[in-house]
Structure to design on (269 residues):
């Protein structure tokens, strides 16, 4: 199957109108950014999930703006044409619209990335509108919002009851009206995600939101089988690199301990 031409943020709605599905993956460094661009991924997301995946924390809540900027700048150096979206971390955009502009502005200026993503519905509409008005493309994030995990009582499917589903649809429409370029829908029942997708002009990108979204995103390290023991229903692992890494490192350790490495071939005369 052929890979579509490189994407721009303003081109997202056109992709949806043409019925072309979007492929997004998280990425935290230049090395993987190069590989993902070569594989034809449409959008790279420097997710604040890096706080869990790379930094070993229990949630995304302690991710800092400096941490996000460091990783986003690394990812950006690894791509030539793929748009890179950067998560605004917890409390970098919720305190006031002014702080959100300053912090999102830092992300854009210091990383040269293409858009920011933030979590929240109606309460975030003025912030999204203010960022967009200042030339900062924004992706929204609804459904399970990891920065609110303590308010939702865990990582569970959202929008199951009628009121919550109506609220999610209204939030999605409000974010679109405020100028959001796309919406991530996380852990949402498939029928609700399909309904939201049909109601919007901008694309939805699902994670645990079923096949009715305009695109799909996964955490790269989950897809590659590096985050062993993490097995949510929505996840399909496309490789099992955890055992591969353990095996390679184990063989290296064995060779060093037994004197088999380095040998003649790997030594200088
Ligand atoms: O931080 C992240 O990786 C995300 C994805 C799960 C969408 O927001």
């Amino acid at each position: 199957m052929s890979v579509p031409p490189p994407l721009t943020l303003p081109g997202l709605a056109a992709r949806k109108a043409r019925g072309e599905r979007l492929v997004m993956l998280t990425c935290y460094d230049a090395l993987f950014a190069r590989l993902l661009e070569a594989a034809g991924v449409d959008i790279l997301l420097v997710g604040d999930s890096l706080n869990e995946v790379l930094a070993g924390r229990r949630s995304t809540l302690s991710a800092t703006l400096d941490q996000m900027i460091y990783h986003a700048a690394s990812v950006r150096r690894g791509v030539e044409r793929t748009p890179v979206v950067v998560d605004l971390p917890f409390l970098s955009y919720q305190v006031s619209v002014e702080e959100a502009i300053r912090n999102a502005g830092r992300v854009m200026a210091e990383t040269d990335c293409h858009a920011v993503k933030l979590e929240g519905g109606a309460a975030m509409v003025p912030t999204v509108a203010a960022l967009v008005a200042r030339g900062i493309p924004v992706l929204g994030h609804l459904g399970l919002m990891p920065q609110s995990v303590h308010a939702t009582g865990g990582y569970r499917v959202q929008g199951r009851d009628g009121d919550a589903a109506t609220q999610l649809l209204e939030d999605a429409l409000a974010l679109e009206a405020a100028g959001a370029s796309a919406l991530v829908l996380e852990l949402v029942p498939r029928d609700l995600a399909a309904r939201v997708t049909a109601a919007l002009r901008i694309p939805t990108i699902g994670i645990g939101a079923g096949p009715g979204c305009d695109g799909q995103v996964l955490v790269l390290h989950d897809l590659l089988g590096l985050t062993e023991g993490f097995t949510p229903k929505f996840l399909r692992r496309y490789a099992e690199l955890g055992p591969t890494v353990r095996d390679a490192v184990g063989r290296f350790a064995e060779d060093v301990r037994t004197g088999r490495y380095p040998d003649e071939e790997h030594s200088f005369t």
